[in-house]
TrEMBL record:
Residue ranges annotated for the RNA polymerase sigma factor 70 region 4 type domain, each copy included: 100-152
Protein name: RNA polymerase sigma-70 factor, sigma-E family
Occurrences of domain RNA polymerase sigma-70 region (ranges): 19-79
Keyword Transmembrane: no
InterPro entries: RNA_pol_sigma-70-like, RNA_pol_sigma-70_dom, RNA_pol_sigma-E_actinobac, RNA_pol_sigma70_r2, RNA_pol_sigma70_r4_t2, RNA_pol_sigma_r2, RNA_pol_sigma_r3/r4-like, WH-like_DNA-bd_sf
Family the entry assigns: Belongs to the sigma-70 factor family. ECF subfamily.
Species in which this protein is naturally found: Amycolatopsis xylanica
Keywords noted in UniProt: DNA-binding, Sigma factor, Transcription, Transcription regulation
GO biological process, one term: DNA-templated transcription initiation
NCBIfam families assigned: SigE-fam_strep, sigma70-ECF
A GO MF label: DNA binding
Length: 162
């Protein structure tokens, strides 16, 4: 590092990435308060290991921490997860009703399926990377993602009728 302390380096990374990880955490858990808890836990763990993290892999490492915290369920404590509409209206040009329907549908998936769908389709990660993050075989990611998408297809027509 040239003239930049580890703390300054971490602070810069935090500032650049915190919003991205909040959105990812929200997509996983469906609750803004829970997402804040997940991201806070992720950044605390990341900071503890900051010296060991290679700059080229820091995003993947942070994503892995976030996924582990989410799947462990520790972020939930005694909180009941409720899908609430956002506190502010969606920006122009976005279909907020469809987005809220998607969020409700995602809550019907198991945490692992939801994580796979979020990582595959919202984060646009390849099957191999999702498999590595979750510590499962590529075929498991493919089959679980296919089941999750099928479950969403079943719910989708019902949601559009309401």
């Amino acid at each position: 590092m040239t003239g930049v302390t580890e703390q300054e380096d971490f602070s810069a990374y935090f500032t650049m990435r915190v919003q991205r990880f909040r959105r990812l955490a929200y997509a996983m858990c469906g609750d803004w308060h829970g997402a804040e808890d997940l991201v806070q836990a992720m950044f605390v763990r990341l900071y503890r290991n900051w010296r060991k993290v290679r700059p080229a892999t820091v995003d993947a490492y942070a994503r892995k921490i976030l996924l582990n915290v989410y799947l462990s369920g520790k972020h939930r404590a005694d909180r009941e997860i409720v899908v609430d509409p956002p506190d502010h209206p969606a920006p122009e040009g976005r279909d907020s009703d469809a987005r809220l329907d998607l969020e409700r549908m995602l809550t019907g998936l198991t945490p692992r399926q939801r994580a796979m769908v979020v990582l595959r389709f919202l984060e646009d990660l390849p099957v191999a990377e999702v498999a590595d993050l979750l510590g499962v075989a590529h075929g498991t990611v493919k089959s679980q993602t296919a089941r999750a998408v099928e479950a969403l297809r079943v719910v989708l027509p019902q949601a559009s009728m309401e």
